[in-house]
From TrEMBL:
This is DUF6009 family protein. It comes from Streptomyces narbonensis. Pfam families: DUF6009 (PF19472). Residues 81-129 are annotated as: Disordered. InterPro entries: DUF6009. Residues 113-123 have a biased composition (Basic and acidic residues).
């Protein structure tokens, strides 16, 4: 979960690669995955789609036990707000979600009013008469 990711775990990130434009997405889910390489598009085995991933510097060390690297992966499921705007996450977000505009290499990102469903571009209902 994003709330469990610390910036210390991201010290060897080199870049964030977005696979699709994130300017229209209110949030993305992020997780730290154990992956076999420092760079390149990782395999994706979740329901939904991968939105992006982190690449690591050459100084990143593999786990002694597994030989894998911890890298962030960004993703969305079919019931997330981008495809189901009136669904479960209309006015909230999953625990692991962050606003993609707050994500950069070595920075975990955070929730914002927009990611929480408080978009300023939604019409405001008229005041009661």
């Amino acid at each position: 979960m994003s709330s469990l990711i610390t910036n210390d775990e991201l010290t060897h990130e080199h870049d964030i690669v977005w696979l699709e434009p994130v300017d229209t997405l209110d949030y993305v889910r992020q997780s730290l995955d154990r992956l076999p390489t420092r760079r390149g598009r990782p395999p994706y085995h979740r329901d939904g789609r991968m939105i992006g991933y982190a690449t690591l510097t050459p100084q990143a060390k593999a786990s002694r036990a597994s030989g894998t690297f911890l890298r962030r992966v960004f993703w969305l499921t079919p019931n997330d707000r981008d495809t189901t705007p009136d669904g479960l996450y209309t006015k909230c977000t999953p625990a692991e979600a962050v606003d993609p505009r707050t994500v950069s290499a070595r920075e975990k990102g955070r929730k914002t009013p927009r990611s929480e469903g408080n978009r300023h571009d939604r019409p405001t209902p008229p005041p009661p008469a």
